[in-house]
Amino acid sequence: MKKNYTLLFVLLFVFAANSLSFAQACTTTVTEVTGTATICGGTTTTLTATHDGDNVYWYDAATDGNLFFTGNPYETAALTASTSFWAESRKQVQGTPTGGGAKLAPTSSSGTTVNATTAPWGLVFNATQSFILNSVDVFLSSTNPGTLVIDLKDSNQTVLQSWTINTPAGGTGSNPVQFTVALNYTVPVGNGYRLLAVSTPSMVRDLGSNAFPYPLGSVGSVTQGTINNSLTTNPGVYYFFYNWNYTPIVNCSSARVEQVVTVNTTSPPTGDAQQLFNVGDTVADLVVTGTDVIWYSDADGMNPIPTTTELVEGTTYYVSQTLNGCESTLLAVTAVTTLGVNNSAFATMNYYPNPVKEVFTLSNLEDTSQIEVYSVLGQQMFSKSYDSPEIKLDFSTFSNGLYLVKITSDDESKTIRVLKN
């Protein structure tokens, strides 16, 4: 008859008494996602999920989709278009402690100690679900107290945890003492774990009549025996560790909460890519249509320049506009004192007076020209085609201010600034 120590009863009583608190309801929620909901094109925003889980997982779809970030908060990449993000929280809770896992008790009376030349001896098991290995039972067959050394290894033989346990005096192989060894180790999902006896007092193993695999409820199974770190030596022997007590770790996920980030994209200002200038002219004399324009000396927009900057022959200047707080990409404008062949249609063109009160005259034009007049805000005030070398435009109905006159002829265009006063 096997003897049982009171320690076993105490441990199981504690497990049972606390099972209600361990078996927590598996629920988690994301209550909201906050962050700047409207940004400018090419910028980032930081999203923060309010949740009660262990961590936040960010997806590109309401269901399924791609997981692209884990953590909280989340800083997006630079966005060029409006984008939806979904936040999901997850957490792990402990289920109910469960005993009787693997083989419940030995069916033989073979008591032995681990042979140091073939150590360690133990069992191989898989974890299909994370769980806490609360305890295992050993059956002591020595009449003297002893020391039990246990290693838990992964499939790569890496030691995850070691325990050294003082064991009481036991019995005999036919009448061993059942002793509960508390382990309390969280085992992640994985295969090929090994629970190993490195050195032992005399304990009972089962040499035969074993029916591997032995289930560990829903969390895994014990698949074989092992000695000397081998999976092919004595796989049919059940070594030492009986009646596994384990607590499943349950994973739960929240419903996903969406956050839409609206991206405002501002188009660059408009204007001719090549513009004539006179010596002494400044950046202010370059003609572009836009709002809150900013001029730069570089294509990356890192070096802003004042509009009083004098123009230099063949130099390219870069200009942006800003709408609703969002700066555009850059328009490149090259300043030249003599237009190339592509602009020969305007080589002899004259215009006067400027400033103008009533009639503005364009002369020496090609026979056919399209004339457009815009306010500096881009509003078209006038548009008409002419078939004449001289054109007179009536400015008398326009309010005082700056206007842009665009002349198009033979697929070439030129824009001039005209001041009405």
Automatic annotation (TrEMBL):
Ig-like domain segment(s): 32-90
Protein origin, superkingdom: Bacteria
Keywords, alphabetical: Signal
Range of residues in the leader sequence: 1-25
Classification via InterPro entries: Ig_7, Secre_tail
Cell membrane listed as a keyword: no
Limits of the Secretion system C-terminal sorting domain: 352-415
This protein's record includes keyword Transmembrane: no
Protein name: T9SS type A sorting domain-containing protein
